[in-house]
Design goal:
- 47% of the residues lie in helices and 15% in strands.
- By secondary structure, it is of the alpha+beta class.
- A 5-stranded mixed sheet has the order 2-7-6-5-4, sandwiched between helices.
- Strand 6, helix 3 and strand 7 form a beta-alpha-beta unit.
- The longest helix is centred in the middle third of the chain and has 39 residues.
- The chain is elongated, with a radius of gyration of 32 Å.
Length: 515
């Protein structure tokens, strides 16, 4: 496979993550082969196409490092901060990239390494390597092995023939989830409190003991490795498991970086789809969906939120988590305070499951964030080329939601959405906003009458005098008198059905009056 180019790398992780301060002499087509961490105690290797991360070097003092990287044939240098040696990089023909001052170098390295080596295959997340690791540990220790995440979900398991297993092992692998019990919970508590491999007794008469170790990186618990112990484990099983945990930590970090990379790519693709700048055919191939609808989630504007930006990002996390639990890899993005999710429409369902999903997310997000959340579902579109239209529907539905109606689809509110669209059209076209409705409002303003609202209520009631009087809370004769006066004083013809229709539309949309 051809080497990743600098331009491709920036397409994947550019923007807020990594910024290009100056391009190399070869431009954005310059190859990027790997990301290297600078070690001041070791000679700088000659690695053509590498990006050198200036660990321990201030951006303003990175000039000598840029010169050394150029002499070593590297593509560029990554500094932390905004005051890097741009002039030196331009003179030497290498790229200068920068990250935020508070960015962790290990995170930047993992992000770059994952992006450079990304492959569009299921193993790209690192799970294939975890299965190989489980087999290696099982072969070396002599016991069936499983690798788990902190939520006791089984990420990988060994397949070495002939090794004894118990029912807990079988159930866990079948469901990819460790069976829960109070005794099991206590063993996990003990394991995550220990710094070394721990031997744990069998939980039941038909179960086998375990040798287990927590997997950590930088003080963070990433998961655990468990080995079934039938009494015949290798004498050095503890040491093998300890080394296996170190390897598992690297693989889990790489898997996390790959997942973050995939999320970033999908979010960027969704943003461009929503803006209408992405190629729909290529996006469908990438996301693996065609028939979709846009869901929009937003914090209640009437609620008091101390840090609305941070809360909106937390809302994004909640929406993404719930959507990924149902649809796997998923595209979500935060734009202008609104969280948009692309919901696939499987089979002939027509998106019937989307409303319950939106209601569930609104409930969960409201509880987690302590802020009311609203959700709008746009129209179902047959291909990704219709995402812009589905988003427009969802945005209009958001404007119609309130505490009594926190979740709705565009089909449920189609008449009101249509009126909102008509309001926009009438407001933009001067010739469509002219008419008797302005004269009615002006007369009411000058004389203190209520003819405009009387007209709207009468028209809303289907020109029924009793119905209009009920909406106005007046006697039908009062309503009849107002209508007669409106015709005489303002000069409108209520016998003309066309004039009634236009008057009703303009008063409802442009004047915002309702019966």
């Amino acid at each position: 496979m051809d080497a990743c180019t600098l331009g491709e790398l920036l397409d994947v992780i550019g923007g807020h993550s990594v910024r290009l301060d100056t391009a190399p002499a070869a431009g954005l087509t310059a190859p990027v082969t790997e990301a290297l961490l600078y070690d001041a105690q070791s000679p700088l290797p000659r690695v053509s196409g590498a990006l050198l991360l200036a660990v321990g070097v201030r951006a303003s003092a990175a000039g000598p490092l840029v010169r050394a990287a150029a002499e070593a044939g590297m593509t560029g240098v990554v500094v932390r901060g905004t005051d890097g040696p741009i002039g030196e990089a331009e003179a030497r023909g290498v790229a200068l990239l920068s990250v935020d001052e508070d960015a962790a170098w290990h995170h930047v390295h993992l992000l770059l390494a994952s992006a450079i080596g990304a492959r569009p295959t299921p193993a790209a997340g690192g799970l294939g390597d975890l299965f190989a690791l489980a087999d290696a540990i099982a072969a070396a220790t002599g016991g069936a092995t499983a690798v788990e995440d902190p939520r006791q979900r089984i990420l990988a398991y060994s397949t070495v023939p002939g090794q004894p297993v118990d029912d807990d092992r079988r159930q866990g692998i079948l469901g990819l989830q460790v069976p829960g019990s109070p005794e099991n919970t206590e063993q996990y508590r003990m394991l995550f409190a220990a710094d070394e491999p721990l031997r744990l007794p069998a939980l039941g008469p038909d179960d086998l003991p375990r040798l287990a170790v927590a997997v950590r990186a930088g003080g963070e618990t990433l998961g655990s490795v468990w080995v079934v112990d039938d009494g015949t484990l290798a004498p050095d099983a503890d040491d093998i498991l300890r080394r296996g945990a170190s390897t598992a930590a690297l693989l889990l970090l790489r898997s996390r970086a790959a997942q973050e990379l995939a999320r970033h790519q999908n979010s960027d693709l969704l943003r461009r789809l929503l803006e209408g700048t992405a190629d729909a055919t290529a996006a469908a191939h990438r996301l693996g969906v065609e028939t979709v609808r846009v869901a929009a989630f937003v914090l209640d504007s009437a609620a008091s939120v101390p840090d609305s930006e941070q809360t909106a990002r937390r809302l994004l996390d909640v929406v993404r988590l719930q959507c990924e639990a149902r649809y796997g890899r998923h595209a979500c993005v935060l734009l202008d305070g609104v969280v948009y999710a692309l919901l696939p429409v499987p089979g002939e369902s027509g998106g019937a499951r989307h409303r319950p999903l939106a209601e569930d997310i609104v409930r969960r997000a409201g509880q987690a964030l302590r802020v009311p959340v609203r959700a709008a579902l746009g129209s179902v579109v047959p291909d990704l080329g219709g995402v812009v239209a589905s988003r427009a529907d969802a945005d209009l539905v958001l404007r119609l939601l309130d505490a009594d109606l926190p979740v709705a689809t565009v089909d449920e509110l189609r008449p009101r959405v249509t009126l909102l669209r008509l309001t926009a059209v009438l407001g933009e076209r001067g010739e469509l906003s002219a008419g008797a409705w302005r004269r009615v409002l002006a007369y009411d303003s000058e004389h203190g009458t209520d003819y405009a609202r009387t007209l709207v209520c009468w028209l809303d009631a289907g020109c029924d005098m009793a119905g209009a009087a009920k909406l106005l809370a007046v006697h039908p004769n009062t309503c009849r008198y107002r209508l007669k006066q409106a015709q005489q004083q303002v000069g409108i013809d209520l016998d003309d059905p066309d004039e009634r229709l236009v008057l009703w539309l303009q008063l409802r949309t442009l004047a915002g009056l309702r019966g």
